[in-house]
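> Could you send the HAUS augmin like complex subunit 7 prediction when you get a chance?

Sure thing. Input:
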Amino acid sequence: MAGVLIEKQLARHVYSSLEAASCPLVEGLYLQEADSMLQLLCAPSQHRTDILAWICSSISPSFTSSKPMSVRSKEPDVLTKDMAVLGQELLLCRASDVDLIRGDASPRRQLQFLEQLLAFVPGCVKSAGHTADGELLLKEFFGAENLPHLTQTLSPAFDPWPTHIKALWKNTKSSYKPNREENGDIVALLQATQSALEQLQSKCVFLNSEAQSPPAFSPSSLRVAASDLQQLMATFSHVYETDLRVYCSRDPPSFSSETEVFQRVQQLLLACNTELEMLKEVSEASESVSEEVKQLQTQPHYWSRGEKHTLPDQLEKVIGRIGGFLSQLSS
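Output:
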């Protein structure tokens, strides 16, 4: 946090130094916030490069005459290296500190470099010093310890007017006497205004507090509600007599107290479900067995004389061998 505050103070000081040196590249900007000054002085941009080139040309007039600016604008690395060489001659940086010239270094380092460069610009340090002194004076004037004195100055407890002004004011107040005609005109104007306001209030119903209160329950609305209720009751009586009375007059159904039948039905249903599950498992097992048999008959799994053969082929060969063996025994 302290580093950020120091960077903002350095940015303000460098910007005020550029204004004091009458740098044409900051004229008309009117920057007030420290973040905008940091963006201008520390972020890589063509405007920042032009400001550095102006500072270098103000320090060394031969900087602009050493190489044409058109060549430098076409080759920005040449301009960057020339400014780094000038900084080395001034013992402010090394010739290899190209990142400091481009704006890739830390903001604090860039601001310190700019501050040291501006110290070589003629007429810059003195004016910037006056500006810094003014800022210090304002900070001290508006400090927390001086706020009570400032408040007392703005709203003094004693009347600071001179004696002759006080006497003139007292004489003016004592010599002024209201006229009866003026009082009569004022009273008539007030009465006319009050009557206009009363007429306006009578025309605007929503301004009346009595109109905003809910209306009382009138006999006519009660009569309408009673007639609606009578019609509903008559309709219900008609529906009850024609449709609902037959069902309402029936005796309630009698339930048997013997529950063994339901228990037996439940047990039979459970047994049926068990048998169905067993049949399902048997069918699944038969399908798996048939699949295995099919694989044994179709897929070669048995080796004979360096080759795989299926089970039926192997059985045929074994049967043929046994038949040949039996024929040899019989002969």
